[in-house]
Structures are given as structure tokens and as C-alpha cells.
Please model this.
Amino acid sequence: MTRQMKSKAAILKLLAGLTAGAWLALPLASHAAEIPAGPPPPDSVVRVDLGAGGASQSLALPVGRSAIVDLPTDARDVLVSNPTVAEAVLRTPRRIYVMGVKSGVTDAIFFDAAGRRILALNIHVEQNTSALADTINRILPGSQVRVEAISDSVILSGTVANASDADKAVTIARAVVSKPEQVINMLSTSGQDEVMLKVRIVEMDRQVIKQLGFNWNAVINQAGSTQFLLSTAASYGVNGALLGGLSSGLTRNTTTQPEVQVYDPATGQTVPVVCSTCPVATPQPTAGSQGINNLSGNLQAFEQVGLVRTLAEPNLTAVSGEAAKFLVGGEFPVPTGEAINGQVSIDFKPFGVGLGFTPVVLSGGRISLKLSTEVSELSNQGAFNLATGAGGPALVVPALTVRRAETTVELPSGGALMIAGLLQDKSAQDLANVPGIKNLPILGALFQSRDYQAGETELVIIVTPYLVSPTSPSNLQTPADGLQIANDFDTILLGRLNKTYKHTPPAAPGTTYQGPYGYVVE
Model:
């Protein structure tokens, strides 16, 4: 038998041992043209040593890449459970090429001529992340980013220069996945920059209230007969009631007059006689006069000018990329529900001066700030009254007057920016009068009331970020440093509460600035 006939017989015998759809046995001649002839990378060669227990091994492949499996004995058959994930090609009886087709998991089992298993290879095919890692490290010089693929997700690990580079790396990685949430960010920054934010909140609130009104009340005709009532009152529709000030007026009542008892000889009885000059006369109810029987008139006037100044300068420090919050104020109770037994559940809401920001240090020392600041105070306007039960006191839930600003800005270290400059001017006026009489000169003003209220508010918020670093505790000063309480002699005779307050720490060697610094309030 010639050599060609022997080779042909071996191929036919190999094909006869295959079962349709279950086994993948590929001879050398059938796929020799599809296999690259170049040498494979060293880490893509799997060598099996049966004596060292290598009958079962794992292999990880990127999509579109191949690996070489070197067997210690000749292989005749190979079984691939999922050929759509990976393909195995017999280059020679002892060398097999494994190629990743798509992401997934499969296994390949190799058998010898006697049907014994030579190797069970667990193949894990994942996305090709080497190009993504090269792109990120090229665009972000100085970064050491590693990219790993798990199923359809991409994991970024390693170190970058700052938080801005980390965001850029995530943005690049999202371009190669189908959904943004498939990028898992586990990057760390090589240097943690700290940002101190100084915020200055200044508010001026000016209130003006003017009230002027007349109250008249008159009863016409004699007591005991048909009487007529005439009255007018100040309504104060803006403020609801007179807030204070001056109240003056006059009152005339003819239904009570001084009387004395005089004996009448004709009747032999005592009769009352009106006598305003008699020292023994006493006020007694009488029929009154024929005209105005009872008259009272009041003038009510009030004017108020108020000025409120609010100044807050909160300072807060946070690491780049981390959020920080600050609140100076308090919390007030708000009822959220009532049980069957009448018990009211309470939730507390904050108010005061609040500050929240998230800094991100960019290249060139610039700082990106996501900032939210708020100034709120309790107010009776819009308050809610809740009855607690029959005969019980009403529960008053106050409202909030809020000035809030939220924005994102980019500043250099030490640069300031005004993010809110609010000037608000509001006024309300109410004029109540009697129809017809209001148009009379001079007399018309006696039958009307005026209620006027005006408010002017100006709010300014200035933010200044600084790049800071920790320092020695000896270089910092608090309001309690250097404080000495005054003795009894200084307190009683000189009216002092403290003897010494400010304290100048010793200057550090090699520095030119000398003086107190920190937070000291006089």
C-alpha cells in the first residue's frame, strides 16, 4: 500500500468515528489554510502535562483571538459543546488551535485513538478589552487603567491622576457597551485633592407698615324710642388688625346724666333732677337727649419701619469628588399621620442656612462645583392649623420662607463668583371707606381707613473655592484659645466678662507672616 493510500485510509477511518452534530474532529488538511502561520503570544499557549495532573484546565480568550493547545499524546477526536462560542481545529495530532467566536462559556474535550480522554478544556470567551485599555491609557497620559470584561459588562480598575480623568475613562468605556450601566467604575485617584468652599450669604430685608383708620359708632334718638345706628370701622385688610401705635378719640353718652333727689312738696315725694353742678349728684340712666344719644369716635394710627440683616459665612472642606453638607439652624415638627387612638406621628424638617456642594478638581487647578445653598426661616404666612380633638388646643404648623439656589460652576482656586443676586420689592395697600362720603373734602378722610405694607429684600450669595492641604494643629486657632475669664473685681467694677481673649501663636521658622489666624470672633 502506498503512502497516499495509507493517508487516505486514515482520514476515512477518522471520519467514520464521528457522530453527526456531536463531535468536532478536524484534520490538518481541511483547515490548514484558515490557521495563521505566525507564532502565538507566549501567554496563549496551553501545554498539558498528564503526569502533573493537567487533564483539566481553563482557558480565557478574547473575542477574535486564538490560543494553541499542545498535547502530550496524539489526539484523534475533539468535542466542543458550544461551537458558536469557540472553535477547535487540529493543526497536528498534538497541536490544536482554539479560536474565540463570541462571548460565552464552553468546553472542549480531546480523545486519543483508543477513546480515552486526554484533556478537558474549560473555555471562557470574553470581550476584547485590550484595545479599550490602550485607548484610555493613550488619551489619559500617566494613567494605569486595567480593563476586564465580565459577560456584557466592563470593569475599569487601576489608578488615574484625578477625578476628572476617571470620568473621562468611564465616558470612553461607555462607547463600547450597549448600556451605560454596563461600565463598572473601580478606579482610584493617585492624589486626593481637598477643596474648601467659602460661602458668604448676605440678606437685607426692609419692612414698612402704615395704618390709619377711624372708628365711629353713634346711636341717634332718645332712649326708649325708635333709635338709629350709625357706625364705621377700620378694616386693615392687608395686615388683618391694628398692629400697635396710637389710639385716641372721644365719647359722648347722654343716656347717663348726674342726678339728685329733690323733695316735691306738692306730691310729698322725692323726684330726680338733672344737675351737673351739684356735688352730691350721682350718674343715673336717663332717657337721654333728642339728638345723638350715644357717640364714640376713635383715631387709630400706626407706622413701623424694620430692617433685618442676615449674614452667614459657612466654610466646608471635602475631598474631590465627594459630597459635603452643612446646616446651621434647627428642625421643626410636622405631623405626618394620626393613629386610630388619636396619637399623632411627627416628622422633623430642617430650616436655617444650609450648604451642600460636590467639588471635582480639574486639570490646571480649576475646580468644578455642583452647589446648592438655602436660607430658610419659620413664617406665620401659610401656616397650617390642625385641630387635635374636641376642646383641645389647635396644632399650628409653621410655614417656611425659603431662598434657594442650585447651580454648577467652574472656578480657579481662590476665584469668587456671585451665583445669586436677588432683589425683591413687594407692596400691598388697602383703602376701606364709606361709599359716597369718601369723596367729601376733609370729612371724607374721617370715614376711611388705610392699610399699607411694603417689603424690600436683597439676597447675595458669593462662593469662593480653595485647594487646601492639612497642616499642623499648632497653626490653627479657635475662639477658646487665649480666653481668660475675668475675676470678680473686673466683672463688678469694670463690667468685663473676659480678661484676655486674642492670642498670637508663635511664628513658624522661616515665615514672614506673624499674627492670629483661624476663627476668632470678638
The longest strand covers residues 194-220. The chain is about 10% helix and 50% strand. The radius of gyration is 48 Å.
